[in-house]
C-alpha cells in the first residue's frame, strides 16, 4: 500500500497547494479559499483517499440535519435518532440548514470541523459535491426521506407513500363517500405525487371519475390546509370527504370547517397523514395514515452507525410500511 504521506504530497503537488493546505482541507479548516478547497476535494475523491483510523470520531457525535424544525413532526425524528445514539454511547448534535432540497453551502464546512461519527439528513436529496466530500472523509450519511426520492446510490430510509394514499382513499370509499378531495404537498416532491397516485388508483378501482379541481398541491403546513380547505368547502358542490397529505394540513382543513360553520365528520370527513401526537389531541380525534417517523429515524441511525464498520455494505433504500388509524374524524356521508 502506498504511504499516505506520499499520496497527500502528490495531491498537494497536483493541486498547486502546500501539504499544510491539503491538511487544512482534510480537517475542515475554514481558512482555505473556495477554489483551492474544491480543487483539493476533487483530487481527494479521484484518488479515493480515506482518513485512516476513522472507525471512531473524536467527538462521538451523530449529526442530525433538518431544513426546518417544525416541532410536531421533527420531534418524532429527533427522539428516534436520540434513542439509538444513546444506546450506542453517542450524542446528537442538531443542525438547521438550507431548504427542503439540500443543506446550505456553509453546512459542509461545519460538519467537517465537527467530524461526527455519521450524519442523518432529513432532506429530499444530498448534492453530489456534499456526498463526495463526506465520502472522502469517511463520514457515513443516510437520508431520512419522507418527502423525496434520493438517487439509488444514496442510502435512505422512507415509507410507502403510494400505499398510504390508497389506504386513506379506500377508507373513505368504504364509508360511502364518492366526492373526495385530496390536498397533498408541494408539486416538486415525489411523496406528494406518490400519495396522489394512491388516491387516483383507489378512485379508479372504484369506477369513479377523478375531478382535477378536487386535487390540490399545498405545503404540508396548517396554513395551506386552511387555504385549500376554504376554497374546496365554500361551494355548493363541496366534497363530502378530504384526504390531506399531512396531519398539519388536516388541522388546517378543520380550522377552515369551523370558519365556515361546518363540522367533522358530520358535514365533511377528513383523513390526515403522519399520525403525529397532535392527531389524538384535537377534537374530533384525527383519522390518519400512520407514517413510522420515529422508526424511520431509528433505522437511519442504526444504518449510519453500521456503515462505520470497515467492509460493511449500506442499504440503498429501506421503505417502511404505513397503516391506517381510524378515529373520530371520518364517518359515512349524511344521508347514506
Shape, principal axes of CA atoms? elongated
Q: What does the largest sheet look like?
A: 6 strands, parallel
Could you tell me the radius of gyration in angstroms?
24 Å
Q: Note the beta-strand portion.
A: 15-25%
Provide the helix percentage.
40-55%
Q: CATH topology of the largest domain, what is it called? A: Rossmann fold
Number of helices: 11
Question: Which superfamily, in CATH terms, is the homologous superfamily of the largest domain?
Answer: Response regulator
Q: How would you write the strand order of the largest sheet?
A: 2-1-3-4-5-11
Class from secondary-structure proportions: alpha/beta
Walkthrough of the structure:
The chain is of the alpha/beta class and 336 residues long. The chain has 3 domains: 4-46; 61-159 and 293-315, Rossmann fold (3-Layer(aba) Sandwich); 161-291, Response regulator (Rossmann fold, 3-Layer(aba) Sandwich). The protein has 11 helices and 12 strands. Strands 2-1-3-4-5-11 form a 6-stranded parallel β-sheet, covered by helices on one side. Strands 7-6-8-9-10-12 form a 6-stranded mixed β-sheet, sandwiched between helices. Strand 8, helix 10 and strand 9 form a beta-alpha-beta unit. The longest helix has 17 residues, at 71-87. The chain is elongated. The model is unreliable at 1-6 and 52-58 (pLDDT under 50).
How are the secondary structure elements laid out?
Blueprint (H helix, E strand, L loop, with lengths): L3 H12 L3 H8 L7 H13 L14 E6 L4 H17 L3 E6 L10 H8 L3 E5 L5 H9 L4 E4 L11 E4 L1 H14 L5 E5 L5 H16 L9 E3 L4 H12 L7 E4 L2 H13 L9 E6 L12 E4 L2 H14 L10 E4 L2 E3 L11
Parallel strand pairs: 1-2, 1-3, 3-4, 4-5, 5-11, 6-7, 6-8, 8-9, 9-10
Antiparallel strand pairs: 10-12
Helix pairs in contact: 1-2, 1-3, 3-6, 4-11, 7-8, 9-10
Amino acid at each position: 500500500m502506498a504511504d499516505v504521506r506520499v499520496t497527500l504530497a502528490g495531491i498537494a503537488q497536483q493541486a498547486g497547494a502546500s501539504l499544510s493546505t491539503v491538511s487544512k482541507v482534510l480537517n475542515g479548516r475554514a481558512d482555505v479559499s473556495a477554489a483551492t478547497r474544491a480543487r483539493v476535494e476533487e483530487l481527494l475523491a479521484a484518488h479515493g483517499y480515506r482518513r485512516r483510523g476513522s472507525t471512531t470520531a473524536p467527538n462521538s457525535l451523530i449529526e442530525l440535519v433538518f431544513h426546518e424544525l417544525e416541532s410536531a413532526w421533527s420531534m418524532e425524528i429527533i427522539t428516534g435518532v436520540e434513542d439509538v445514539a444513546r444506546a450506542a454511547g453517542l450524542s446528537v448534535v442538531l443542525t438547521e440548514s438550507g431548504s427542503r432540497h439540500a443543506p446550505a453551502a456553509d453546512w459542509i464546512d461545519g460538519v467537517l470541523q465537527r467530524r461526527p461519527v455519521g450524519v442523518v439528513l432529513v432532506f429530499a436529496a444530498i448534492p453530489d459535491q456534499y456526498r463526495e466530500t463526506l465520502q472522502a472523509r469517511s463520514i457515513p450519511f443516510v437520508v431520512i426521506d419522507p418527502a423525496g426520492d434520493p438517487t439509488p446510490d444514496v442510502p435512505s430510509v422512507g415509507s410507502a407513500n403510494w400505499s398510504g394514499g390508497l389506504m386513506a382513499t379506500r377508507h373513505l370509499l368504504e364509508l360511502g363517500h364518492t366526492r373526495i378531495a385530496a390536498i397533498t404537498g408541494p408539486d416538486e416532491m415525489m411523496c406528494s405525487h406518490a400519495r396522489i397516485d394512491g388516491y387516483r388508483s383507489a378512485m379508479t378501482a372504484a369506477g369513479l371519475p377523478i375531478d382535477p379541481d378536487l386535487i390540490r398541491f399545498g405545503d404540508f403546513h396548517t396554513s395551506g390546509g386552511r387555504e385549500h380547505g376554504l376554497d374546496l368547502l365554500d361551494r355548493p358542490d363541496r366534497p363530502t370527504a378530504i384526504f390531506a397529505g399531512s396531519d398539519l394540513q388536516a388541522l388546517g382543513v378543520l380550522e377552515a370547517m369551523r370558519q365556515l360553520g361546518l363540522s367533522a365528520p358530520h358535514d365533511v370527513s377528513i383523513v390526515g397523514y403522519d399520525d403525529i401526537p397532535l392527531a389524538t389531541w384535537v377534537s374530533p380525534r384525527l383519522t390518519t395514515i400512520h407514517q413510522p417517523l420515529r422508526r424511520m429515524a431509528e433505522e437511519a441511525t442504526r444504518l449510519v452507525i453500521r456503515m462505520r464498520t470497515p467492509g460493511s455494505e449500506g442499504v440503498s433504500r429501506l421503505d417502511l410500511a404505513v397503516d391506517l388509524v381510524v378515529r373520530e374524524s371520518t364517518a359515512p356521508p349524511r344521508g347514506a
